Amino acid sequence: MADVVRVVVTGGAGQIAYSLIPHICKGLIFGPSTMVDLRLLDIEPAKDALKGVVMEIQDSAYDLMASVMATTDVAQAFKDVQVAVLLGGFPRKQGMERQDLIEKNVQIMRLHGQALEQHADRNCKVVVVANPANTNCLVAMKYAPSISPANFSALTRLDHDRLRGMLAAKVTEKSHHKISAKDIRNCVIWGNHSSSQVPDATHAEALVEGKWQAIAPLCNDPQWLEKELVPAVQNRGAAVIAARKLSSALSAANAVACHLRDWVGVTSSSTTGDGMFVSMAVISDGNPYGIPEGLVFSFPVASSNGKCEIVQGLSISTHVRELLDATVAELLAEREMATSIIAARQGAL
Ligand code: LMR
Predict the structure, then answer these.
(1) Which domain-ending residue is among 154, 170, 190?
(2) Per residue in 140-160, pLDDT tens?
(3) Structural domain count of the chain
(4) Among residues 193, 203, 259, 319, which one is catalytic?
């Protein structure tokens, strides 16, 4: 990383941004000696809230804060940015059809994609969090053709870490070894960041008594592993909303921080290194694992130093393969909807 990193956070007055800002400004993503030039973008109705966030940032007197700008001007916000965190989207409201949700978000992602194209650093790294994150990412990518598709990603690290957390709790309960999420590695989330996602613990390992060991015997609960774990992870976002009456923010921000740290950051992490992988939604170029080309799809990835590679050659169980078909079908349908909305204006995705 350069001495100063220029970062835009859209949805800058929102809940996730509020939890994410300390990660950015305390060196937890870009390292303890990288200063931050932070731009918070939001829409006009959030202008006052945005001012309040800037006051709080100033009051925090972060050592690494080079400058902070709050703006509703997209061009100003994206000027020369090296990292773009796209949190701002149109949330699903009660009674809203998927088509309506995609329609609203296509417009926002078009605006932000065009801003990336016109104003951002050509090597800008982008993470899309606003839902439907995978398809939003595809739309933003489409509108920023001079930035490599490899620089675009959607967040599934939240689902990945939910899976790690649940596995750590189960191993602690069943094996009498007290472990935490940092002792779980090589989980995979496949597909869409939605309830069709495929949480896969087949390759997961736990660090018990100094040795990485296969997860299934340590969980010692085949029924839970086969039948309960997958829906628990798939529906965790909804469970948080039901409990908090708000969607996840603390954990989402933490996941964004880990996603970026492992991809573009310089700090060491317990989730990167030889033979280790995490989950990120990236473009499915080259048909990896038989997934159709041109979808933003969550895969196991090895990422560091600004590069991210899909980990190839993992075995896929029959059960996981069946679940993959559903998440592929959902993403194809989302892409179709987005394409027809865009085609009404110009070309296809
Ligand atoms: C989450 O996974 O917590 C969120 O994506 C859920 C949501 O719909 O906001």
Answers:
(1) 154
(2) 999 999 999 999 999 999 999
(3) 2
(4) 193
